[in-house]
Specification:
The structure is a single chain. This protein has 11 helices and no strands. The protein is an all-alpha fold. It starts with a helix and ends with a helix.
């Protein structure tokens, strides 16, 4: 019984904290602790969300399409790049520093260049999403490959297995948890990257709509856009976790057994 209560408390604690923060936010605006002309209350944001729902859904479709196309291309490039870097140490030594340096360049510095180069359509947004989503997956996959069971690799080599067999039976299954960790980060980067690119040029999308509302001093609608971006990102992070759960059922069985033994 004590363990059940502890599990329930652990699951509910983030929701309770979020509710407390929203209540404090509402009180802060109503009691004039926060400037209401800059920071609208949660109830005003919800009202704007309801009023503006058709426009928000229209612009969400554009942002969503750009983010998903860029994420899909980014995942394919990242997986291929990680496999090549893991197989060829010389390529890894040459490419790894460049990947790290690429992450030190601010996204807002790259976006205007891409817009000037590729125009105001979807292309610069998709390219920016690709650039921001490749790095987390490559780094996590390389970590996964380096942490696989080396005894299993040696055993397969002694049994005459080739590189593909080792990759298929040991490296890829062992690196899957690392891949999904990187994918969760990349999903959030995909939507943020798409919105940042829209800020700097474009005709449709949540980033464009947010700038329009900011310029019109309609901050409740601007916060409604931010809420939609957060909800979409959280939805897709949850979907990645769901896919991870069903693609690696053995991992979750081991985790449950471990928690059961510890009594947590």
């Amino acid at each position: 019984m004590k363990t059940n209560w502890r599990n329930i408390a652990r699951k509910l604690s983030p929701w309770l904290l979020a509710v407390v923060l929203v209540i404090l936010w509402e009180m802060g605006v109503r009691l004039a602790w926060l400037p209401p002309f800059i920071i609208p209350s949660p109830t005003e944001v919800i009202a704007a969300l309801v009023r503006d729902w058709p426009n928000l859904m229209h612009h969400s479709q554009v942002t969503l399409m750009q983010a998903l196309i860029g994420l899909g291309i980014g995942v394919m490039i990242a997986v291929v790049l990680a496999l090549i870097m893991d197989s060829l140490p010389l390529i890894r030594q040459a490419v790894y520093p460049l990947l790290v340096v690429s992450q030190t360049i601010p996204t807002v510095a790259i976006a205007p260049i891409l817009v000037l180069w590729l125009g105001y359509d979807m292309a610069p947004k998709i390219v920016l999403v690709v650039l921001t989503t490749v790095f987390p997956i490559v780094i996590n996959l390389l970590n996964g490959f380096s942490h696989v069971d080396q005894d299993a690799v040696q055993l397969l080599k002694l049994m005459g297995a080739n590189t593909w067999d080792i990759l298929k039976h040991v490296k890829l299954p062992g690196a899957l948890p690392y891949f999904f960790s990187g994918l969760r980060v990349s999903v959030s980067y995909a939507f943020v990257g798409s919105v940042v690119a829209e800020w700097l040029g474009g005709f449709e999308g949540l980033g464009v709509y947010m700038i329009q509302k900011k310029n019109a001093f309609s901050y409740d609608h601007m916060f409604a856009v931010i809420a939609v971006i957060s909800l979409i990102s959280l939805l897709f992070i949850w979907l990645v976790s769901l896919i991870e759960h069903f693609s690696m059922p053995w991992l979750h069985r081991d985790t449950k057994r471990s928690h059961a033994k510890k009594g947590t």
